[in-house]
Amino acid sequence: MAEYIFEVFRFDPDADSKPRFDIFRVPPFKKGLTVLEALFYVQEKLDGSLAFRSSCREGACGSCAMHINGKYRLSCETQVKDLFSDKVVVQPLGHLRVLRDLVVDMEPFFAKYKYIMPFLMPGSPPPERERPQTVGDQMKVLPSVDCILCACCHASCTVTGTDPEYLGPAALLWADRFVRDSRDDALDERLRLVDQLHGIWRCHTIFSCQEVCPKDLDPTGAIADLKRRALRRKLLGQ
Ligand code: SF4
Q1: Same-domain check for residues 15 and 85
Q2: What is the annotated signal peptide range for this record (predicted)?
Protein backbone atom coordinates (compact mmCIF):
# COMPACT_ATOMS: atom_id res chain seq x y z
CA MET A 1 0.00 0.00 0.00
CA ALA A 2 1.72 3.21 -1.18
CA GLU A 3 -0.61 5.52 0.70
CA TYR A 4 -4.07 5.79 2.18
CA ILE A 5 -6.60 8.32 0.92
CA PHE A 6 -8.32 10.04 3.86
CA GLU A 7 -11.58 11.86 3.15
CA VAL A 8 -12.17 13.99 6.21
CA PHE A 9 -15.30 15.97 7.11
CA ARG A 10 -14.56 19.67 7.46
CA PHE A 11 -16.85 22.39 8.77
CA ASP A 12 -16.32 25.62 10.62
CA PRO A 13 -19.78 27.02 11.44
CA ASP A 14 -18.29 30.51 11.86
CA ALA A 15 -16.69 30.57 8.42
CA ASP A 16 -18.26 27.94 6.14
CA SER A 17 -21.72 28.05 4.56
CA LYS A 18 -21.78 24.24 4.35
CA PRO A 19 -19.61 21.22 5.20
CA ARG A 20 -17.16 19.64 2.76
CA PHE A 21 -14.76 16.71 2.63
CA ASP A 22 -11.02 17.33 2.27
CA ILE A 23 -8.76 14.67 0.83
CA PHE A 24 -5.39 13.87 2.40
CA ARG A 25 -2.81 11.31 1.35
CA VAL A 26 -1.31 9.47 4.32
CA PRO A 27 1.59 7.02 3.94
CA PRO A 28 1.55 3.84 6.06
CA PHE A 29 4.44 5.29 8.06
CA LYS A 30 4.29 2.75 10.89
CA LYS A 31 3.12 -0.77 11.60
CA GLY A 32 -0.36 -0.87 13.13
CA LEU A 33 -1.13 2.71 12.07
CA THR A 34 -4.38 3.84 13.68
CA VAL A 35 -6.90 6.31 12.29
CA LEU A 36 -6.06 8.67 15.16
CA GLU A 37 -2.33 8.54 14.33
CA ALA A 38 -3.19 9.24 10.69
CA LEU A 39 -5.24 12.28 11.75
CA PHE A 40 -2.27 13.54 13.79
CA TYR A 41 -0.11 13.07 10.69
CA VAL A 42 -2.56 15.21 8.71
CA GLN A 43 -2.64 17.86 11.42
CA GLU A 44 1.14 17.99 11.89
CA LYS A 45 2.29 17.65 8.26
CA LEU A 46 -0.55 18.58 5.90
CA ASP A 47 -3.15 20.86 7.49
CA GLY A 48 -2.70 22.27 10.99
CA SER A 49 -6.26 23.59 11.04
CA LEU A 50 -7.85 20.12 11.25
CA ALA A 51 -9.76 19.82 14.56
CA PHE A 52 -10.46 16.57 16.41
CA ARG A 53 -10.50 15.35 20.01
CA SER A 54 -8.30 12.76 21.68
CA SER A 55 -6.72 12.15 25.04
CA CYS A 56 -5.62 8.75 26.35
CA ARG A 57 -4.93 7.12 22.95
CA GLU A 58 -5.61 3.68 24.46
CA GLY A 59 -9.40 3.24 24.40
CA ALA A 60 -9.97 4.39 27.96
CA CYS A 61 -11.26 7.97 27.71
CA GLY A 62 -13.74 7.76 24.82
CA SER A 63 -12.91 11.23 23.48
CA CYS A 64 -11.76 10.18 19.99
CA ALA A 65 -15.01 8.48 18.93
CA MET A 66 -15.99 9.24 15.34
CA HIS A 67 -17.64 7.75 12.25
CA ILE A 68 -15.06 5.78 10.25
CA ASN A 69 -15.92 3.95 7.03
CA GLY A 70 -19.57 3.52 7.90
CA LYS A 71 -19.33 2.72 11.62
CA TYR A 72 -18.89 4.61 14.87
CA ARG A 73 -15.58 3.62 16.45
CA LEU A 74 -12.75 4.84 18.66
CA SER A 75 -10.15 6.20 16.23
CA CYS A 76 -7.31 5.29 18.63
CA GLU A 77 -8.33 1.62 18.57
CA THR A 78 -9.01 1.39 14.84
CA GLN A 79 -6.04 0.25 12.80
CA VAL A 80 -6.26 1.45 9.22
CA LYS A 81 -5.29 -1.97 7.82
CA ASP A 82 -8.33 -3.50 9.56
CA LEU A 83 -10.65 -1.33 7.46
CA PHE A 84 -9.57 -3.39 4.40
CA SER A 85 -9.65 -0.34 2.14
CA ASP A 86 -7.14 2.24 0.96
CA LYS A 87 -9.88 4.86 1.30
CA VAL A 88 -10.82 6.04 4.81
CA VAL A 89 -13.83 8.31 5.26
CA VAL A 90 -13.92 10.08 8.62
CA GLN A 91 -16.90 12.03 9.95
CA PRO A 92 -17.94 13.40 13.36
CA LEU A 93 -20.35 11.70 15.77
CA GLY A 94 -23.96 11.97 14.63
CA HIS A 95 -26.89 13.61 16.42
CA LEU A 96 -24.60 16.14 18.12
CA ARG A 97 -23.89 19.67 16.86
CA VAL A 98 -20.59 20.10 15.03
CA LEU A 99 -18.40 22.70 16.69
CA ARG A 100 -15.65 22.29 14.13
CA ASP A 101 -14.54 19.47 11.79
CA LEU A 102 -14.63 16.27 13.90
CA VAL A 103 -15.37 18.01 17.20
CA VAL A 104 -18.98 17.91 18.39
CA ASP A 105 -20.82 19.53 21.28
CA MET A 106 -21.01 16.75 23.92
CA GLU A 107 -23.05 18.84 26.38
CA PRO A 108 -26.51 17.43 25.48
CA PHE A 109 -25.09 13.91 25.81
CA PHE A 110 -23.59 14.58 29.26
CA ALA A 111 -26.74 16.44 30.36
CA LYS A 112 -28.70 13.21 29.84
CA TYR A 113 -26.10 11.29 31.81
CA LYS A 114 -26.38 13.78 34.70
CA TYR A 115 -30.19 13.67 34.52
CA ILE A 116 -30.35 9.99 35.50
CA MET A 117 -28.40 10.83 38.71
CA PRO A 118 -25.28 8.69 38.16
CA PHE A 119 -24.34 8.22 41.79
CA LEU A 120 -25.37 5.93 44.62
CA MET A 121 -28.43 6.93 46.65
CA PRO A 122 -28.41 4.61 49.70
CA GLY A 123 -31.37 4.65 52.08
CA SER A 124 -29.26 4.42 55.24
CA PRO A 125 -26.73 6.82 56.80
CA PRO A 126 -23.08 6.44 55.73
CA PRO A 127 -21.37 3.51 57.50
CA GLU A 128 -18.13 3.92 59.41
CA ARG A 129 -16.29 2.22 56.56
CA GLU A 130 -17.41 1.11 53.07
CA ARG A 131 -20.76 -0.40 52.03
CA PRO A 132 -19.78 -4.04 51.35
CA GLN A 133 -21.00 -6.02 48.35
CA THR A 134 -20.87 -9.73 47.64
CA VAL A 135 -19.08 -10.89 44.50
CA GLY A 136 -22.49 -11.84 43.09
CA ASP A 137 -23.79 -8.30 43.69
CA GLN A 138 -20.72 -6.85 42.02
CA MET A 139 -21.21 -9.03 38.96
CA LYS A 140 -24.63 -7.44 38.43
CA VAL A 141 -23.09 -4.02 37.78
CA LEU A 142 -19.63 -4.94 36.50
CA PRO A 143 -20.14 -4.93 32.74
CA SER A 144 -21.89 -1.54 32.69
CA VAL A 145 -19.21 0.25 34.72
CA ASP A 146 -16.86 -0.27 31.75
CA CYS A 147 -18.79 2.43 29.86
CA ILE A 148 -16.40 5.24 28.88
CA LEU A 149 -19.15 7.66 27.76
CA CYS A 150 -17.79 7.81 24.22
CA ALA A 151 -21.29 8.44 22.73
CA CYS A 152 -20.87 5.92 19.88
CA CYS A 153 -24.17 4.35 20.97
CA HIS A 154 -25.89 7.74 21.14
CA ALA A 155 -24.70 8.63 17.63
CA SER A 156 -25.75 5.29 16.15
CA CYS A 157 -29.23 5.31 17.72
CA THR A 158 -31.99 6.11 15.24
CA VAL A 159 -34.26 7.38 18.02
CA THR A 160 -31.80 10.02 19.28
CA GLY A 161 -31.76 11.23 15.66
CA THR A 162 -35.51 11.77 15.58
CA ASP A 163 -36.14 12.73 19.22
CA PRO A 164 -33.34 14.98 20.55
CA GLU A 165 -34.84 14.71 24.05
CA TYR A 166 -34.65 10.92 24.12
CA LEU A 167 -32.39 9.95 27.01
CA GLY A 168 -30.46 7.60 24.76
CA PRO A 169 -28.65 4.28 25.26
CA ALA A 170 -25.72 5.47 27.38
CA ALA A 171 -27.77 7.37 29.99
CA LEU A 172 -30.24 4.48 30.22
CA LEU A 173 -27.42 1.94 30.56
CA TRP A 174 -26.16 3.95 33.55
CA ALA A 175 -29.66 4.21 35.02
CA ASP A 176 -29.89 0.43 34.87
CA ARG A 177 -26.42 0.11 36.39
CA PHE A 178 -27.57 1.97 39.54
CA VAL A 179 -30.91 0.16 39.67
CA ARG A 180 -28.93 -3.11 39.77
CA ASP A 181 -26.59 -1.92 42.51
CA SER A 182 -27.28 -3.66 45.84
CA ARG A 183 -26.11 -0.52 47.71
CA ASP A 184 -28.70 1.73 46.07
CA ASP A 185 -32.21 2.30 47.50
CA ALA A 186 -33.70 4.76 45.01
CA LEU A 187 -35.54 2.38 42.67
CA ASP A 188 -38.77 4.45 42.62
CA GLU A 189 -36.94 7.69 41.90
CA ARG A 190 -34.76 6.11 39.22
CA LEU A 191 -37.71 4.47 37.45
CA ARG A 192 -39.62 7.77 37.59
CA LEU A 193 -36.74 9.45 35.73
CA VAL A 194 -36.65 6.92 32.89
CA ASP A 195 -40.34 5.86 32.66
CA GLN A 196 -41.41 8.96 30.75
CA LEU A 197 -42.17 10.27 27.25
CA HIS A 198 -38.50 10.51 26.21
CA GLY A 199 -37.30 7.54 28.25
CA ILE A 200 -37.20 3.76 28.03
CA TRP A 201 -40.33 3.29 25.90
CA ARG A 202 -38.80 5.24 22.99
CA CYS A 203 -36.23 2.47 22.45
CA HIS A 204 -37.21 0.42 19.39
CA THR A 205 -34.81 -2.43 20.23
CA ILE A 206 -32.78 -2.03 17.04
CA PHE A 207 -29.49 -3.02 18.73
CA SER A 208 -27.39 -0.46 16.82
CA CYS A 209 -26.01 0.78 20.17
CA GLN A 210 -24.91 -2.72 21.10
CA GLU A 211 -23.34 -3.22 17.68
CA VAL A 212 -21.05 -0.18 17.89
CA CYS A 213 -20.12 -0.17 21.59
CA PRO A 214 -16.30 -0.38 21.78
CA LYS A 215 -16.58 -1.98 25.22
CA ASP A 216 -19.02 -4.69 24.06
CA LEU A 217 -21.73 -3.43 26.40
CA ASP A 218 -25.43 -4.02 25.91
CA PRO A 219 -27.45 -0.81 26.30
CA THR A 220 -30.42 -2.44 24.53
CA GLY A 221 -30.49 -5.19 27.16
CA ALA A 222 -30.19 -2.61 29.95
CA ILE A 223 -33.18 -0.70 28.55
CA ALA A 224 -35.18 -3.93 28.29
CA ASP A 225 -34.35 -4.58 31.96
CA LEU A 226 -35.60 -1.10 32.92
CA LYS A 227 -38.81 -1.68 30.93
CA ARG A 228 -39.42 -4.96 32.79
CA ARG A 229 -38.81 -3.32 36.16
CA ALA A 230 -41.05 -0.35 35.33
CA LEU A 231 -43.88 -2.65 34.24
CA ARG A 232 -43.51 -4.87 37.31
CA ARG A 233 -43.64 -1.76 39.47
CA LYS A 234 -46.79 -0.54 37.77
CA LEU A 235 -48.68 -3.83 37.56
CA LEU A 236 -47.54 -5.66 40.69
CA GLY A 237 -46.20 -2.82 42.84
CA GLN A 238 -42.84 -4.64 43.18
FE1 SF4 B 1 -19.62 4.24 24.52
FE2 SF4 B 1 -20.59 1.75 24.95
FE3 SF4 B 1 -20.77 3.58 26.88
FE4 SF4 B 1 -22.28 3.83 24.72
S5 SF4 B 1 -22.41 2.17 26.24
S6 SF4 B 1 -21.15 5.47 25.70
S7 SF4 B 1 -20.93 3.04 23.11
S8 SF4 B 1 -18.89 2.73 26.01
Answers
A1: yes
A2: none
Q: Which of 104, 135, 168 corresponds to the end of one domain?
A: 104
The answer on 129 and 83 residing in a single domain is: no
Identify whether residues 43 and 149 lie together within a single domain.
no
Can you list the alpha helix ranges (DSSP code H) found in the chain?
35-41, 107-115, 135-141, 152-156, 158-162, 168-179, 187-194, 208-212, 219-236
Instruction: Write the CA distances from 49 to 75, 102, 111, 195, integer angstroms.
Output: 19, 11, 29, 44
> Nearest residue CA, atom 1 of ligand 1?
150
Instruction: Give yes or no: residues 127 and 61 share one domain.
Output: no
Answering whether pTM is above 0.85, one says: yes
Q: How many structural domains is the chain composed of? A: 2
**Ligand 1 binding pocket mutation candidate from 56, 149, 172 (most atoms within 8 A of CB):** 149
Last residue within a domain, chosen from 60, 79, 104: 104
Task: Note down pLDDT in tens along the chain; length 238 residues.
Answer: 689 999 999 999 999 999 999 999 999 999 999 999 999 999 999 999 999 999 999 999 999 999 999 999 999 999 999 999 999 999 999 999 999 999 999 999 999 999 999 999 999 999 999 999 999 999 999 999 999 999 999 999 999 999 999 999 999 999 999 999 999 999 999 999 999 999 999 999 999 999 999 999 999 999 999 999 999 998 987 7
Mapped onto helix, strand or coil, the DSSP state of residue 220 is helix
Residue nearest to atom 6 of ligand 1 (CA): 149
Q: How many angstroms is it from 152 CA to the middle of ligand 1?
A: 6
Could you tell me if 80 and 129 lie in one domain? no
* Dist. CA 24 → ligand 1 center (Å): 30
Closest to 76 (Cα-Cα) out of 98, 44, 53, 102: 53
CA of 179 to the centre of ligand 1 (A): 18
